[in-house]
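help with this record:
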Amino acid sequence: MPGALVALAERLQGICLGRRITVAVAESCTGGLVAATITEVAGSSGYFLGGVVSYANSAKESLLDVPAHVLAAHGAVSAQVAMAMAAGARARFGAVLAVSITGVAGPDGGSDEKPVGLTYVGLASAAGLEVRRLQLAGDRAGNRADAAGAALEWLIAEAGRGG
């Protein structure tokens, strides 16, 4: 577990515990890295409710209530799916905040339209849904770590605002 990611998880935990903010995650290309990083820190059970690794579209549909028509229209790596994943995780776990990640980690699987490194991070809160588009430039491990870091940083910022 990269130390920089664990440091982010420690910051997130301090804010969430202090403000009584709960968190859930929905991950695809990161394969559970965000959840693993959060739970690397002792005491994470005080705010982290859980996560879903939904690599397959069928898992996105059945576990996170991502509509099949959204997947068909936009593909798994899209802003629309990232937002639906975050909303699904927030609803499924009853969390104050939920973050989602979907992307093309590499080294294969990219296309002209959706190149390797294209990643969407979604955030669901009481204020609604937001999404960020990232174009990462590392190898598979680097892209996964960078996406996880971006998700943790966004959670820290949102939790710092009170969720």
